[in-house]
């Protein structure tokens, strides 16, 4: 099942399937080691347009809600 990162629930895990953005967004996410095929887990999110915190390996990353809506995850 696929969802956007912002639609995921706490503790859900999945693999990044695509990033719907331009080259700038893809490059920015790549530089943060957040790329297609990477396994992530949703740690927390705010109920209204707040940051989304994800975990990949031992790294935690906070992503704004606008960007989180552009990241498609294949949820396990």
Can you give a write-up of this model?
By secondary structure, the protein is of the alpha+beta class. It has a single domain (2-75), classed as SH3 type barrels (Roll), CATH 2.30.30.90. Helix content is 17%, strand content 42%. The chain has helices at 23-31, 65-68; strands at residues 2-4, 13-19, 39-45, 52-56, 59-63, 71-75. A hairpin with a 2-residue loop joins strand 4 (52-56) and strand 5. The chain is globular and about 30 Å long. It starts with a strand and ends with a strand. The mean pLDDT is 93.
Features:
76 residues; alpha+beta; SH3 type barrels
Strand content: 35-45%
Helicity range:
10-25%
Order of strands, widest sheet? 1-6-2-3-4-5
Total number of beta strands:
6
The H-level CATH homologous superfamily, spelled out, is Ferrous iron transport protein A (FeoA)
Number of helices: 2
- Rounded average pLDDT: 93
Name the poorly predicted regions: none
- CATH level-1 class: Mainly Beta
The string of secondary-structure elements, in order, is EEHEEEHE
**CATH fold name, please?**
SH3 type barrels
- Rg (C-alpha, Å): 11 Å
Span from first to last CA?
7 Å
Task: Give the number of domains.
Answer: 1
Q: What summary fits the major beta sheet?
A: 6 strands, antiparallel
Give the class from helix and strand content and strand pairing: alpha+beta
CATH architecture grouping: Roll
Q: Tell me, what's the shape?
A: globular
Ordered list of secondary-structure elements with their pairings:
Blueprint: E1 2-4, E2 13-19, H1 23-31, E3 39-45, E4 52-56, E5 59-63, H2 65-68, E6 71-75
Antiparallel strand pairs: 1-6, 2-3, 2-6, 3-4, 4-5
């Amino acid at each position: 099942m696929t969802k956007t990162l912002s639609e995921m629930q706490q503790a859900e895990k999945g693999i990044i399937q695509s990033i719907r953005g331009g080259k700038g967004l893809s490059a920015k996410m790549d530089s943060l080691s957040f790329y297609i095929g990477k396994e992530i887990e949703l740690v927390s999110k705010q109920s209204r347009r707040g940051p989304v915190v994800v975990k990949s390996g031992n790294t935690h990353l906070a992503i704004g809600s606008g960007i989180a809506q552009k990241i498609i995850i294949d949820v396990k």
